[in-house]
């Protein structure tokens, strides 16, 4: 093996539960999108990732999921990991429960699928076709499909970006509960500053190909969006994102991708 080959490191899967990224770069057609990015995620840590539309958040998640290996740098991820994206991507020709266990080794196990559908509150929909689900229900199925793999790392790319406000609040609460129950690490890409501060231990702001800013959210859960600490962190994050804090509590949409 040549020196060249040896130095071109890509994704390493380990039994460890933490994520280690050193000097990660990714370019498309000569345009650098991720530029020598460093990031560590501890076992069981909930990290939220914010950033302007097009800054490379989804690119980073796809790399961590193992869907893109045209990279340089060192990336170490747990082998047991799964992802859910903004679009639930269910197979329309498979009943809901079969979607949940699709790709698992062995015979499709309906009881197993139903157990995870129950965790996300829609086991009564196990036997229907995906096209009969609402957007929120489809997103829950997508979450069940990620959880059935008992991941050590759960990658969530704007999973609730397309949901209405009420469904979104319920889904946020669900993700918080699932995280506490399963103890996995989560990397959540979101365009919603308030959501990031409600859920995460640490909020990152991506810019210019790297992690430009971060804030540790050292507040007890459930969090009070009206507390002075919460408000101060929100103001700081919005400033980093180049958005002015509005008088309302409405979270701004700083990511055009997420328009419902
Ligand atoms: N497969 C691809 N081919 C070419 N350009 C891409 C590809 N995927 C992403 N990009 C570009 O990389 C940049 C970052 O994209 P993305 O990671 O989707 O941003 P974000 O998720 O932060 O909105 C964008 O400019 C996008 O156009
Ligand atoms: Mg994206």
Describe the protein:
- The chain has 260 residues and is an alpha/beta fold.
- It has one domain (3-246): Rossmann fold.
- Helix content is 31%, strand content 25%.
- The chain has helices spanning 3-7, 57-65, 96-101, 110-119, 135-147, 165-182, 193-199, 228-240; strands spanning 11-14, 19-28, 31-41, 46-51, 72-78, 81-84, 153-157, 185-189, 202-207, 210-216.
- Mean pLDDT is 91; it is low at 1-7 and 247-260.
- The structure holds adenosine-5'-diphosphate and magnesium ion (MG).
- The site of magnesium ion has 3 residues, from helix 2.
- InterPro entries: AAA+_ATPase, ABC_transporter-like_ATP-bd, ABC_transporter-like_CS, ABC_transporter_ATP-bind, P-loop_NTPase.
- It holds the Pfam family ABC_tran.
- One of its GO terms (molecular function) is ATP hydrolysis activity.
The SS-based structural class is alpha/beta
Low-pLDDT segments, ≥5 res:
1-7, 247-260
What is the helix fraction of residues, given as a range? 25-40%
Shape: globular
The CA-CA distance between the termini, in Å, is 49 Å
Q: What is the name of the CATH topology?
A: Rossmann fold
The unique ligands bound to this protein are: adenosine-5'-diphosphate, magnesium ion
User: How much is the radius of gyration in Å?
Assistant: 19 Å
CATH top level?
A: Alpha Beta
CATH superfamily placement: P-loop containing nucleotide triphosphate hydrolases
Instruction: Write the element-wise H/E pattern from the N-terminal end onward.
Output: HEEEEHEEHHHEHEHEEH
Q: Write the CATH architecture name.
A: 3-Layer(aba) Sandwich
Largest sheet: 6 strands, mixed
Q: Please count the beta strands (DSSP E, at least 2 residues each).
A: 10
- β-strand percent reads 25-35%
> How many domains make up the coordinates?
1
Q: Helical segment tally?
A: 8
Overall pLDDT confidence = 91
Strand arrangement within the widest β-sheet reads: 6-7-8-4-9-10
């Amino acid at each position: 093996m040549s020196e060249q080959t040896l130095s071109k490191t890509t994704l390493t899967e380990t039994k460890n539960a933490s994520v280690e990224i050193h000097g990660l770069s990714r370019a498309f057609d000569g345009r650098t999108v991720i530029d020598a990015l460093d990031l560590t995620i501890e076992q069981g840590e909930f990290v939220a990732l914010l950033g302007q539309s097009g800054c490379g958040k989804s690119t980073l998640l796809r790399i961590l999921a193992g869907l893109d290996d045209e990279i340089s740098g060192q990336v170490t991820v747990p082998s047991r990991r799964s992802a859910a994206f903004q679009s639930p991507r269910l197979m329309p020709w498979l009943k809901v429960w079969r979607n949940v266990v699709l790709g698992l080794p062995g015979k499709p196990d309906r009881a197993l699928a139903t157990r995870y559908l129950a965790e996300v509150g829609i086991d009564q929909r196990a036997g229907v076709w995906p096209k009969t689900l609402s957007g929120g229900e489809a997103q829950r199925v997508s979450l069940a499909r990620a959880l059935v793999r008992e991941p050590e790392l759960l990658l969530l790319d704007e999973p609730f970006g397309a949901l209405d406000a009420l469904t979104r609040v319920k889904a946020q609460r669900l993700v918080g509960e699932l995280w506490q129950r399963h103890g996995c690490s989560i990397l959540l890409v979101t365009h919603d500053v308030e959501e990031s501060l409600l859920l995460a231990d640490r909020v990152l702001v991506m810019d210019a190909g790297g992690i430009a800013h971060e804030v540790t959210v050292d507040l007890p859960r459930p969090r009070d969006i009206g507390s002075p600490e919460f408000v101060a962190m929100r103001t700081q994050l919005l400033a980093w994102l180049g958005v002015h804090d509005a008088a309302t509590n409405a979270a701004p949409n700083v990511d055009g991708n997420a328009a419902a």
